[in-house]
Amino acid sequence: MARDMTSSRALYSRLLSYVRPYWRVFLAAMLCMGLSSLAEPVFPAMMKYMLDDGFAKSRGGWAWLIYPLIILAIFLVRAIFGFLGEYAMSWVANNVITELRQAMFGRIVHLPMRYYSDNLSGHLMSRVMYDVTNVTGAATTAITSLIRDSLSIIALMGWLFYLNWQLTLITLVMAPPIAVAVRFFSRRLRKVSRGMQQAMGKITQVLQETIEGYKVVRIFGGQAYERERFRQAVREQRGLAMRATLASAGQSPIVHFFAAVALAIIIGVALRQAADDQTTVGNFVSFITAMLMLLPALRRLTDVNAPIQRGLAAAESVFALIDEAAEEDTGSLELGRAQGQIDFDHVTFTYPGAERPALNDLSLTVRPGECVALVGASGSGKTTVANLLPRFYGVETGEIRVDGQRLSEIRLESLRANIALVSQDVVLFNDTIAANVAYGSKRGASREDIRAAAGAAHALEFIDMLPDGIDTMIGENGVKLSGGQRQRLAIARAILKDAPILILDEATSALDTESERHVQAALDELMRGRTTLVIAHRLSTIENADRIVVLHEGRLSESGKHAELLALNGAYARLHSLQVQAEKSAGA
Fold it and tell me: What's residue 3's pLDDT?
């Protein structure tokens, strides 16, 4: 329990550190709430003097207006300061949400590839969208209630002590059992809140997969299956939400019960005192009025425990992401513009959770300006080579060098500035064509350069037919374009980057025959003078490569030109023969 309390204090302290930059507005909000709360005991105090003085003595003229005007003034002051306090606190809360989301997203874009492999994207999205709002509930909204209602309770208790300290002590007897009840429900709420966050992540994941894979869902009749997945996810979340409601709602009846016991005893004692002329009618009414005003504040104060516990559970999730180790960048060397020499020296690499290495003692040298094609069966390690060169993953043994410099010694930004990638899995953004071509470090490129790159990729022929040309919005992942058009935009992006090292991962796989002919001509021009790694499944596209490397189970099996490898009659010849037969069968 002590460790949980320490953890909660540490979490809350860290959470409030995001409020610190806005301390002036936060302080102003607390001041307004304090003034609003301190106005509360004025009303029961006025009741005392009104009953003991206002009704007891006859007053002429306009004296009867004093108390109604005081009532209006009390509620006007409370309304003004209450509004200002709520608005200021909401301003702080929304700024905290912004800061936390920016911090989380800033970490997401620097996480290593391994993290994305191990974590569902839906859970990441849920953290950024859902968990943060619960965090601010603890950082600001809960504090609002905590400050306002605590001050109200203190002010009202002070007035009660002034009126009758014996009766007030009775109310304090009920504090220990109320504190025990609140502490018990706090532990339950924190535990259930963690489960609710995970359940929300599942809902987001199912929703995202169904939306992104809508074609597969429909063509394979997966609607019923996806409905069932979603039903289970939302039912799990509903169950946890009801458990949270049970824990949250269970506090109020218990608190109210003890408060009612105290109130019943106080009324009984007060009536006895009134009968013995130990108190006045004004004292009695003022005391009961203050007690009745105390109960809602006490209820709100106990109810604030629920958002605090939800916020602390969300804070654990949010800060776990913010504290996640960023992609390791141990290098300090600025590569400049590389010559393009690549050396794989006895490299071994195994993906997390895999049973066997993806690359096993691979040694390979690619000379500057050379075009090397990597071929082999699925799982032979071709894509792994493309993943290791930009240091998406680190090697286990051996080393990779660019221009004689070990990758671990080169700054990641400098290394990747020298590499362009065109993959069969085209990634485009819901932005204009120009923004997708001039992406990242090239976002300041001129329109002339963008059009030149698009022209070299044979993309202008369809871009100029669009109503807004290169300013056309292409939708999520380029949904408004055909597969071939998307691929040509990806190639245009690589052309504009003008990097000395080029990785082509089935770059023409999504193109029809006519488009492939145009793009292959553009790629031939792009590859000239650049070190190029071509990952190919269709061997007909790499027959003119300077060298073809055949991989088998992560090892280098054969290496040579197309004609040389066919003459060897080995693995490459077998792959080539199988593809020729498959193409003939498809043609027939």
Answer: 43
pLDDT score, position 446 = 92
Q: Is 491 exposed, middle or buried (0-12, 13-18, 19+ CB in 10 A)?
A: buried
Lowest mean pLDDT among 148-157, 325-334, 364-373: 148-157
- The answer, yes or no, to whether residue 265 has pLDDT greater than 90, is no
Which among 41, 19, 332 is positioned nearest to 160, based on CA atoms?
41
- Is the pLDDT reported for residue 188 higher than 50? yes
* HSE-up (13 A, CA, CB side) for residue 451: 8
Question: Which of 427, 426, 327 lies closest to 108, judged by CA?
Answer: 327
Q: Which two tokens stand for residue 404?
A: 């004689």
Q: pLDDT at residue 313 above 70? A: yes
Which pLDDT score is estimated for 61? 54
Cα–Cα distances in angstroms (integers) from residue 198 to residues 101, 122, 210, in the given order: 18, 10, 19
Calculate mean pLDDT across residues 365-378: 90
pLDDT digits (tens, 9 = 90+) for 386-428: 889 999 888 889 999 999 999 989 998 899 899 988 887 788 8
Q: What is the Cα–Cα distance from 260 to 117, expressed in whole angstroms?
A: 56
Q: Coil, helix or strand for 422?
A: strand
| DSSP sequence for 199-266 | HHHHHHHHHHHHHHTHHHHHHTT-HHHHHHHHHHHHHHHHHHHHHHHHHHHHHHHHHHHHHHHHHHHH
Alpha carbon distance 542, 507 (integer Å): 12
Rounded Cα distance, 262 and 168, in Å: 9
| Cα–Cα nearest to 571, from 374, 299, 349, 361 | 374
| Cβ(364)–Cβ(336) below 8 Å | no
Task: Say how many C-beta atoms besides its own lie within 10 A of residue 223's C-beta.
Answer: 11
Which of 406, 412, 395 is CA-nearest to residue 111? 412
Name which of 192-196, 308-312, 515-519 the model is least confident about.
515-519
| Mean pLDDT, the chain, whole residue set | 80
Q: How far is CA 472 from CA 225, 267, 475, in A?
A: 37, 75, 9
Segment holding 461, helix H or strand E = helix 460-463
| Structure-token pair, residue 39 | 């106005």
pTM over 0.90: no
* C-alpha span between 375 and 574 (Å, rounded): 12
The conformation of residue 476, written as its DSSP 8-state character, comes to G
For the residues of 150-199, what is the DSSP string, one character each?
HHHHHHHHHHHHHH-HHHHHHHHHTHHHHHHHHHHHHHHHHHHHHHHHHH
**pLDDT at site 409:** 92
Q: Tally the C-alpha atoms within 13 A of residue 308's C-alpha that lie toward its C-beta.
A: 22
Exposed/middle/buried for residue 102 (C-beta within 10 Å: 0-12, 13-18, 19+): exposed
> Residue 292 above 50 pLDDT?
yes
Handedness of CA 461, 462, 467, 471 (dihedral sign): negative
Reading the block at residue 537, the tokens are: 């499944």
Three-class SS of 32-73? HHHHHHHCCCHHHHHHHHHHHHHCCCCCCCCHHHHHHHHHHH
* Residue of 475, 470, 429 whose CA lies nearest to 447: 470
**Reduced to 3 states, what is the DSSP secondary structure of residue 521?**
helix
For residue 340, the one-letter residue type is: G
How sure is the predictor about 385, in pLDDT bands with cuts at 50, 70 and 90? Answer: very high
- 112 is written with which tokens? 């290593």
Examine the pLDDT at 439 and tell me if it is beyond 70: yes
Q: Is 476 left (phi over 0), alpha (psi -120 to 50) or beta?
A: beta
